[in-house]
Each structure stands twice: as structure tokens, then as C-alpha cells.
TrEMBL record, chain A:
Pathway: Protein modification; protein ubiquitination. Residues 3-62 form the SKP1 component POZ domain. It comes from Drosophila albomicans. Belongs to the SKP1 family. The keyword Nucleus does not apply. Keywords: Ubl conjugation pathway. InterPro entries: SKP1 (IPR016897), SKP1-like (IPR001232), SKP1-like_dim_sf (IPR036296), SKP1/BTB/POZ_sf (IPR011333), Skp1_comp_dimer (IPR016072), Skp1_comp_POZ (IPR016073). The keyword Chloroplast does not apply. GO terms for biological process: ubiquitin-dependent protein catabolic process. Residues 109-153 form the SKP1 component dimerisation domain. The lineage of its organism: Eukaryota, Metazoa, Ecdysozoa, Arthropoda, Hexapoda. Pfam families: Skp1, Skp1_POZ. This is S-phase kinase-associated protein 1-like isoform X1.
UniProtKB/TrEMBL annotation, chain B:
It comes from the Eukaryota. InterPro entries: F-box-like_dom_sf, F-box_dom, LRR_dom_sf. This is Uncharacterized protein LOC117571656 isoform X1. The gene is LOC117571656.
């Protein structure tokens, strides 16, 4: 089986099977455009810890990658999270955010949707103030902006 | 890392996953969230679903619709709510509907006892929208559903009104899926949305007026057991393959009864159909004789109705089916070319394979008139010729 080497931002080389990482649209595109066999693919935006976690996810789902297009994947927002996925994605906020960032960068639609849905579930049904608390975001709205928005939501 | 470190695309993706009744609150979190909500409206609200069943949730949805009405192409409205749609809600909703110039498709999920007047007011409002292509109304019911297609507002309303009159039709006859299709627009997208929301429909029948492929989302109905498809004879043979493949792959384990009266059901299509493992009742018009060769693979079939346009003798094909389908109770063939000698042959096969004490006699329905048989044969066979 073909193997590929990935160089992460913390200078770790991770070897993985080629078809496992093909769930990443970005890497797939890179490999299609370069010819060399034994190349190392640099991923300057991805830490090795996160890449390992993503490969773990890809391993579990490796036989499910149907030939759905990225667009179809993105449309499919109402799916239920499976028990394995929900266990996998049960991480702290910072890791979750990093997973979103990397899934987006690597263009792994299903993982991106999973992570975003998980984050959305955390703030569903909450007030704006509670959302700020959960996401650790400061309220930078001015008094007059808030007044306009209050009007908007009536 | 903090959520604000993410780019706008990722944050909009998160927003997309949030129930819409929370969107206004999301927009009020901070300046960046508010800007993202504004910037991505065109993408996020292309398809919108007013589904909240609570008074409060619906109020939030209406507020959101007020801000997004210019972008919505597909709208799904759940009128099957636990609270009253009072006049104020209705007026608000209709006012917004009036200015939804980009709206192409609307699905209304109705209550079983929805008054016709409510329906009419909504439909009349839509009449003035420039881009509307397809309107669907339905009740999510498990009793037999019929998919009706109309191409004219008046016909659509007339039929809806009539079937809501309890003097004319009993209440359960309301359970029709009605499609108003304008300018022969495709219906696939609407059916895909419908299938996603129709959790209880067990039985469905429809007349095919568009390409078979347009109906393939119906295979996503999660509880469908019985499906009847009729077509117009005299037209060119439609390509049934996309629909049949969808049925055999999605309804593999659940479909128990299938009727297809549409020209064009050939060998390849039949090969797909026999993959549906739980099929107990099959009623088809086959276009090729060799389709019958495949029917022996239906291991739990009990009722088999066949029509095949052909003149060759089919004794052996029928005997093979009798031999291989142990649970078969009735086999009916329209005007077949069979010889009388099939009766003793069939008897022989059955005597070998079946126990007449455990199983009712097999009915061979090849005509209208009962054939007199001796008592021994009657243990195994009843024949109409």
C-alpha cells in the first residue's frame, strides 16, 4: 500500500497510508499536481497532535467515504452525530476550534461539519450573553449598536 | 485557540448548524458575528425551514425571516404546530411571503384538520411571486398517501378544497401529497425535502408525469413499505433505471410491496428489483420475457402479478417460479400464453416441495373462470383460467 509522509508545523514527520488521507481535498489536490513519488508534504498549519487525531478519525471512517461531492456534504447539515463521533469530538474548546481550523484548511468536509455542529450544539438555545460566556468572547458592541440590534430582533 | 481565530467561512459553517431560532442571538454576540450573519445570509438562508413547534421559537423564526426574506429560495413551513396560529402570526407570515421574490419552492406541512381557508390564503399569496416553481402540501400520515401533481393554481385549490370537505371525502383522504408544478419545473429537490420530513408515510402511490429520476428521492422515505407507480401508456418508454436503482439500494430491507405499471421495465430494471430482499408482493408490467427468469430469486414473495407483452409460451418460466418461491400464494398473469398441461406439472412440483397441511393451496390466476379439479389437486392448487 502506498505511503505518504506529512511534515507538521512542529517538525514531526507522520507517515500514513495514501488512501487514508485522501479524505482531505487539499492533500488530494496537492498530490494530483505534483509528480514525485517520495515527496514529503509540508503542512505548516497543522500540529502533529491534531494531525494524529484527524488520522484516527479518518481511520474509523475510511470505508465510508462515499463519492459525494463537497457541496453535497456541506448541504447535509441535519445529520445526527454517531456515538463514536460524539466520543471523538468530546474535546476542550481550544482543541475543537483547532479541529475546525485544520478540517477547513485540509478540506475534510465531513469532519468540518461534525466539529461545527458540535460547537453549534454548545450554544444552541442560549442567550447572546450565555453564548459569549461559553465561547469566551468579549462583547465589543457599542451601546448604539446594541440598541439597533434590539430593534432588529423585535 | 478561541473561536474568533477562525476564518469567516468556518464561523458561517457553525452558524449554519445552529437551529434558526438561535440565529438572532448569535448575531448579537459581537461585531464580527453580526457581520458574518449579514455577509453569509445569501448562502445560509437559501433554504429555510420554519419548523419550531413552540410559540416562542416560531416568533424567533418569524423575526429571522423578516431579515432574510430576500434570500430564501426554498422554504419549508411546519403548520402542524402545537400552538394556535393566531391572526397576528398569520398576517405577519403572509406579509413576508408577499415580498419573497426569490422564492422558488415552498413546502407546507399541514395539520390533518387544517381549514381550507388557511391553505387558500397562503397559496393565493404565492400566486404573485415571480420565481415560484413548485409548491407542495402534505400531511405526515401513515395511511395511504397519494402524490398528486397539478400544473394550475385553480385545479390545485379546487382539489384541495374538495378533499377537505368531510361530506365528500373521509378525513383520512386528506393525506395526499399535492405538488403544484409550474412551467414543468423539476420536482426532485422538492421531493428530497419532503422525503426528509415525512417520517410516517408507509404507503405511497403516484402517477409518473416527469422523468423517473425526478422521483428517486422518494426512496429516502424512512418508513415506506408499499409503493405503487403508474405511468402513461402510449408515451415513449421512460428510463426507469435511476428510480429503480434508488429503490433497490435505499429500500432494500423495508419495502414489502411494489407495483410498477409503467412501460419500460426491462431485464436490467428487474435485476435491480429482485435485490429488494423483503419483497412480498410484486405487481409489474414487464417489457421482456426474460424478466420472468429473475423472479425466482424473490424468496419471500407471496403475491406475484405479472403482465408481459409477449406471445411465446411461458409454461417453463412459470414452473421455475413455482419451484423456487416457497412462500408464493398467488400468481396472476394477464392474458398469458400457457398450455393446460401446466396444471399437472405445477401439481407435481408442489407435491414434491410443499406440505399441504401447513400451506394454503397456490392460486394460479390465469383467467376469470374457475377450473374444476379433483380433491387431491385441490389440496395444492386452485386454478382460474
Amino acid at each position: 500500500m502506498a505511503v505518504i509522509k506529512l511534515l507538521t508545523s512542529d517538525n514531526v514527520i507522520i507517515e500514513t497510508e495514501m488512501d487514508l488521507i485522501m479524505c482531505s481535498g487539499t492533500i488530494k489536490g496537492m498530490l494530483e499536481s505534483c509528480s514525485g513519488d517520495d515527496e514529503i508534504v509540508p503542512l505548516p498549519k497543522v500540529r502533529s497532535a491534531i494531525l494524529t487525531k484527524i488520522l484516527q478519525w479518518a481511520q474509523f471512517h475510511r470505508y465510508e467515504f462515499a463519492d459525494t461531492t463537497a457541496e453535497e456534504e456541506a448541504e447535509n447539515v441535519c445529520g445526527v452525530i454517531s456515538p463514536w463521533d460524539s466520543d471523538f469530538i468530546n474535546v476542550d474548546m481550544s482543541t475543537l476550534v483547532e479541529l475546525i481550523e485544520v478540517a477547513n484548511f485540509l478540506n475534510i468536509q465531513r469532519l468540518l461539519q461534525l466539529a461545527c455542529k458540535t460547537a453549534a450544539n454548545m450554544i444552541a438555545g442560549k442567550t447572546s450573553e450565555d453564548m459569549r460566556k461559553i465561547l469566551n468572547i468579549k462583547n465589543d458592541l457599542t451601546f448604539s449598536e446594541e440598541a439597533v440590534m434590539r430593534k432588529e430582533s423585535k | 485557540m478561541n473561536l474568533l481565530d477562525l476564518d469567516d467561512d468556518s464561523l458561517s459553517c457553525l452558524l449554519h448548524h445552529l437551529p434558526i431560532e438561535d440565529h438572532m442571538n448569535f448575531a448579537k454576540v459581537c461585531q464580527r458575528f453580526h457581520r458574518i450573519w449579514e455577509d453569509y445570509k445569501c448562502w445560509i438562508y437559501k433554504r429555510m425551514e420554519l419548523g419550531s413547534t413552540s410559540d416562542k421559537g416560531f416568533k424567533q423564526e418569524l423575526i429571522l425571516l423578516h431579515h432574510t426574506a430576500d434570500y430564501v429560495k426554498n422554504l419549508i413551513v411546519n403548520l402542524n404546530r402545537k400552538f394556535e396560529w393566531n391572526k397576528i402570526y398569520m398576517a405577519k407570515f403572509l406579509n413576508m411571503l408577499k415580498r419573497m421574490h426569490t422564492l422558488e419552492r415552498l413546502i407546507l406541512w399541514l395539520k390533518d384538520d387544517e381549514p381550507y381557508e388557511v391553505l387558500e390564503t397562503i397559496i393565493r399569496t404565492l400566486e404573485h411571486l415571480p420565481n415560484i416553481k413548485c409548491i407542495a402540501t402534505y400531511q405526515d400520515n401513515e395511511v395511504v398517501d397519494i402524490l398528486y401533481q397539478f400544473d394550475d393554481y385553480e385545479d390545485f385549490l379546487k382539489e384541495s378544497k374538495m378533499s377537505r370537505n368531510p361530506m365528500i371525502e373521509p378525513i383520512y383522504s386528506h393525506t395526499k401529497i399535492r405538488l403544484l408544478v409550474l412551467n414543468n419545473a423539476p420536482i426532485k429537490e422538492t421531493l428530497a425535502d419532503l422525503a426528509q420530513h415525512s417520517k410516517r408515510i408507509k404507503e405511497l402511490s403516484f402517477r409518473m408525469t416527469q422523468k423517473a429520476e425526478e422521483y428517486s428521492p422518494l426512496a429516502e422515505l424512512p418508513n415506506l413499505r408499499v409503493l405503487q407507480i403508474f405511468g402513461h401508456y402510449g408515451d415513449d418508454c421512460p428510463d426507469l433505471m435511476p428510480l429503480v436503482t434508488a429503490l433497490s439500494s435505499k429500500l432494500l430491507h423495508q419495502l414489502s410491496s411494489l407495483t410498477i405499471h409503467v412501460p419500460g421495465l426491462g431485464y436490467d430494471e428487474t435485476a435491480e428489483i429482485i435485490r429488494i430482499e423483503g419483497l412480498q408482493r410484486l405487481d409489474c408490467h414487464f417489457s421482456e420475457l426474460r424478466c420472468l427468469e429473475l423472479l425466482k430469486h424473490l424468496k419471500v414473495i407471496t403475491y406475484l402479478f405479472i403482465r408481459v407483452a409477449h406471445t411465446e409460451n411461458i409454461d417453463n418460466l412459470v414452473l421455475t417460479i413455482i419451484e423456487h418461491c416457497p412462500t408464493l400464494l398467488v400468481i396472476q398473469i394477464d392474458s398469458p400464453n400457457l398450455s393446460r398441461s401446466i396444471i399437472p406439472k405445477a401439481l407435481k412440483v408442489l407435491q414434491k416441495l410443499r406440505n399441504s397441511k401447513d400451506q394454503s393451496p397456490l392460486r394460479l390466476m390465469f383467467g376469470k373462470n374457475p377450473v374444476q379439479l379433483d380433491a387431491d389437486t385441490r389440496e395444492y392448487l386452485r386454478v382460474f383460467w
